[in-house]
Specification:
signal; two-stranded antiparallel sheet; mainly beta; 2 helices; FApF; 12-stranded antiparallel barrel; 347 residues
Length: 347
């Protein structure tokens, strides 16, 4: 936790220093390709009074290979304490968003998502004479996730700089009772481990701050936020709080096209409590000690913005995010990459 606070402070200082000589410039220009943050950043901008924006994003993340705290390990290490070792996981998320500004100082935002999870695993059984037999199997889950509603309050907009705060709530509409057949369930569907669930089962609150700046060809920003889960869910656990700090730099190749580079630090606490229907010795993902941790990422992206004619206000964007450092709690699959594609339309 201390590390991520230092990272957040450094990112904000970098962006503030970048604008110290631009205090006499005009107001924020919302009609450039880089006026919005990279598509992987949420709640990055506000709108003028009466403006609407609708958005769609698709994000896919792939995980493979195993890491134990600061070290890479193999399946044999996992089988010392668990019967089953995860091999790889793919997560997909369709995100729908809407924004509306009842005033220049206040923008309201709502987001909903549909999630798909697929995981491949291997179970190892050891016979009486010491022979081992590995059994491969897969599990899957899908459904609508939790809904979030936020208020973005603008605190500053001058000299090509903006600053706004975010106050949000999460509503537990996603399922925490997803089931599937496993190699150990004798053909019966059983409750799936924590990473395969669709929702949190808990109400949450989100607090954040975003700072943006522009020059003639460059723009950038920094964002820090925290998400607190407020209550124990119906399955007797509560997800760990989440802390995020990110900063980005974008270059406008033209008024319509920009490139971006971004750094991100993400820390997730362990789950509190546990689901009594899960056996924590069966598979790593059913043990709450193997949830959460620290992740440092970097990302490259691009935005294309239509500034004229019938398509004015339409934006297409893409971003690829790769891990720079991972220190998970306990034993977890390593994140290999994530890709986010999206479109936004303001009117």
């Amino acid at each position: 936790m201390k590390n991520i606070l230092w990272v957040a402070m450094a990112l904000f200082c970098f962006n503030l220093n970048a604008q110290e000589n631009n205090e006499e410039e005009n107001l924020w220009d919302a009609h450039r390709a880089s006026s919005h943050a990279p598509i992987g950043v949420m709640g990055d901008h506000t709108h003028h009074k009466g403006e609407f924006m609708v958005s769609y994003r698709y994000m896919t993340m792939f995980m493979k290979d195993i890491r134990y705290n600061e070290n890479d390990v193999n399946d044999d290490f996992v089988y010392q304490n668990y019967m089953t070792s995860p091999q790889e996981m793919t997560m997909g998320m369709h995100m729908l968003g809407a924004m509306y500004a009842p005033s220049d100082r206040l923008t309201l935002m709502a987001m909903a998502n549909y999630i798909t999870n697929d995981m491949d695993l291997t179970m190892r059984m050891t016979g009486d004479i010491g022979m081992t037999m590995d059994t491969d199997f897969s599990t899957a889950s899908s459904g609508f996730g939790d809904v979030s509603i936020s208020a973005l309050v603008q605190l500053l907009n001058k000299n090509k700089q903006t600053l706004h705060a975010e106050f949000g709530v999460g509503i537990p509409t996603g399922s925490i009772d997803e089931k599937d057949v496993t190699a150990m369930s004798n053909g019966e569907e059983v409750i799936l481990p924590y990473p395969m669930q669709i929702g949190s089962g808990s109400f949450s609150t989100k607090l954040g701050m975003t700072y943006l700046w522009q020059t003639e060809k460059l723009s950038g920003g920094a964002q820090a936020n925290v998400k607190f889960f407020l209550n124990e869910n119906d399955n007797n656990y509560r997800l760990g709080n989440q802390y995020l700090a990110t900063s980005w730099l974008a270059y406008d190749a033209t008024q319509n096209f920009s490139f971006s580079a971004r750094a991100e630090a993400n820390y997730v606490e362990q789950i509190e409590g546990y689901n009594p229907a899960l056996n924590p010795m069966m598979v790593t993902t059913a043990n709450t000690s193997n949830i959460g941790g620290m992740q440092l990422n970097y990302a490259l992206g691009a935005n294309y913005y239509f500034s004229k004619n019938a398509l004015k206000g339409l934006r297409f964007a893409a971003e690829v995010k790769l891990p720079a450092y991972q220190e998970p709690n306990g034993i977890q699959l390593k994140q290999q990459y994530s890709v986010t594609l999206g479109t936004q339309y303001s009117f």
